[in-house]
Amino acid sequence: MSRAALLVLADGRFPAGGHAHSGGAEEAVKAGRITDAESLERFCRGRLHTTGLVAAGLAAAAALGTDPLALDEAADARTPSAALRAAGRKLGRQLLRAARATWPSPELAALAAARPRGAHQPVVLGLTARAAGLGPEDAAYCAVYESVSGPATATVRLLGLDPFQATAVLARLAPAMDETVRSAVAAARRVPDEGVDALPRAAAPLLEIGAEAHAAWPVRLFAS
Amino acid sequence: MMTEVLREEAVPLLSRPAPAPAAADLVPTGIEATARITARRDAAGATVLPVLEGEGPLAVRRLRAVGAEARAALVGAMSAPLGGDRLAVHAEAEAGARLRLTSTAATIALPGQHGQPAFYDVRLTVGRGAAVHWLPEQLISAAGSDLHVTTDAEVAEGGVLVLREEQVLGRTGEPPGRLTSRLRVRCAGRLLLDQELCCGPGAPAGWDGPAVLAGLRALGQLLVVRPEFADAPVQPRMLADHASVTPLAGPAALVTAVAPDALSVRKLLDEAMTELLA
Question: Which UniProt key words apply to this protein (chain A) (predicted)?
């Protein structure tokens, strides 16, 4: 395993298009549910323990070698919002393109052939980690970090929040991120015996509903 | 205290076929009870209910059929679930049968005497070309309770499932109990939906925050699986500030509603149901 490969994959500048998504923060800011660093932190904690945990479980399972198409179906079932499924597949398609150029592998090529319109992003992320010689913990760390860093940086732009404060929010979430990774990887390790039903499926109703509201806006700063 | 008195009377009468061994008296145990309903299409095209069995706190009553649809209701025969209880409902509509299952009152999850969690498992099986409507009243998570609800539905090809779930976090003016509610649906062998909501004391942080429930205390989901939705999926749209309908990745639509109170949730789900079943 190469620690440097993890930094390459986790870098916000990795050209996979994630910067265009706010993780539901744009809708929550407009609806008045995120107004400052404190409400951003509560938003991020909720997102981490739901969407973040689910993404980390899928990514860890893909990194362990679980059939990516079974995981893609599991991701669909865990994403009732049509807007979020579309966003997840679009992000997956962009990541897959970048990953195949960065760490070419037969598994990435096979997934691209099987899902030409894109597989869910966490599944691609896990398979990319695998292609880069990384493990399930690494894949899960990328997923949980993305689940909160997206909303935090988006809120800096949306609210004019002090970037130092936004970064401090992320730092305060670090212990919870460690814990989320542990539970996601533990679940992923049960998949060979129990199937994909063992993976986390935590729901966040307001993120699901808000994603549909956001998708209907005529003008928006972020794609989701 | 009233609750306890009722239980003491009702338990031996309704749910305990044999006395527990003396040694077990020292171990706190809850009630285990399963209600079973099977709907079958008869030669004339009507639906009959060859199995209609209640147990303990889960009594089942046959209601008047409407057309080809058989109807039954769960009737709470005592206060349940309390901590430590394990309740289950297994309902099946065999090929071509039509079953509508309701409940006569809200289910209130209450704490037990020894702090153990309670479990409530609902298993719905919809045969080929069959229809199941599972429309129970609200589940109320009372302060101090800890309930795990699992709803598992399996829908065969051409089957129709209408499933409503509503949760109310705490009775009026009290904090909620701990509630873990998983809804998993397979359709023609394919996984269609797998979601779990955890809320209340001890749930992962953020459950009451701006990404999950934002202090709102009532939520509901209405799932409609219909073969027609395979070719003509519903268009995703908002139904209210905190309510939307979305097509799933399969022949189904899901309405999710969050609101300050149970009545608002019910009104949204009722309106959506009329539209989705039209």
Answer: Chaperone, Cytoplasm, Nickel insertion
Nearest CA in chain B to A40: B210
The pLDDT tens digits for A99-145 are 999 999 999 999 999 999 999 999 999 999 999 999 999 999 999 99
Cβ atoms < 10 Å from Cβ of A67:
13
Nearest-CB residue to A208 (from B206, B247, B256): B256
**Hey, which residues does B99 pair with through a beta bridge?**
B70, B132
Q: What is the pLDDT of residues A78-96, one digit of tens each?
A: 999 999 999 999 999 999 9
DSSP letters, B197-248, are: EEESTTSPTTTTSTTTTTT--EEEEEEEE-GGGGTSPPPPEEEETTEEEEE-
First-to-last alpha carbon distance for chain A, in angstroms, is 33
Residue type for position A30: K
Chain B: residue whose CA lies nearest to A35: B210
Chain B residues touching residue A24 (CB < 8 angstroms):
211
The helix (run of H) or strand (run of E) holding residue B226 is none
Q: How far is CA B188 from the centre of its chain?
A: 21
Show the domains of chain A with their CATH numbers. Answer: 3-9+24-214 (1.10.4190.10)
CA distance linking residue A38 with residue A151, whole number of Å: 13
Give the whole-angstrom CA distance, residue A88 versus residue A120: 5
d(CA A92, CA A148): 18
User: Amino acid identity, residue B188?
Assistant: A
Q: What is the rounded distance in angstroms from the CA atom of residue B233 to the CA atom of residue A82?
A: 11
- Which residues on chain B are in Cβ contact (under 8 Å) with A33? 210, 214
Using CA atoms, how far apart are residues A89 and A75, in angstroms rounded to an integer?
10
- Give every CB contact of residue B172 below 8 A, 6+ residues apart in sequence: none
Rounded to 5, what percent of chain B is helix, strand, coil? 15, 50, 35
- Three-state DSSP at B193 gives strand
B260 contact A CB<8A: no
**Cβ separation of A204 and B198 shorter than 8 Å?**
no
pLDDT in tens, B53-97: 999 999 999 999 999 999 999 998 677 899 999 999 999 999 999
